């Protein structure tokens, strides 16, 4: 009828984490108790899509001291906000309609203006992020003419990149 806060105590029992809540003693025959629990659980990054709790009532009643174990599966949903930031160096450039590249030249500055694009991926949390794939499409040609010559690709921070086909075909 009334609402009470229960005192619950976490402890380890046979290698498992157990939370023991005292509901009160003695209870009258046929008593009905609803218990709403809020648990804070950490370290769920690798548990998959659900976590299972085993619930059991234990009593000092000698006729039926333990209820059947009930398993409650609670879905786990990871949440993280990932932000992609990008910039170009220089921020803007005016290109000529045609750039005559000297035949056989291996100097990048003779093939056009160097423009560097930098992308940063930031995890704002609260969860950790792994297995992220970033696909970046760069327009190399426009109207059948060379627009951007992809010279090199580099990464920092333990990421792996797959080099796009056609990266530096003239070996500049």
TrEMBL record:
Record membrane topology: Single-pass type I membrane protein
Residue ranges of every copy of the Integrin alpha second immunoglobulin-like domain listed in the record: 4-76
Family annotation (InterPro entries): Integrin_alpha_Ig-like_2 (IPR048285), Integrin_alpha_Ig-like_3 (IPR048286), Integrin_dom_sf (IPR032695)
GO molecular function, one term: integrin binding
Intracellular or extracellular location(s): Membrane
Pfam families: Integrin_A_Ig_2, Integrin_A_Ig_3
Domain of life, per lineage: Eukaryota
GO biological process: angiogenesis; cell adhesion mediated by integrin; cell-cell adhesion; cell-matrix adhesion; integrin-mediated signaling pathway
Organism: Eudromia elegans (Elegant crested-tinamou)
The protein's name: ITA2B protein
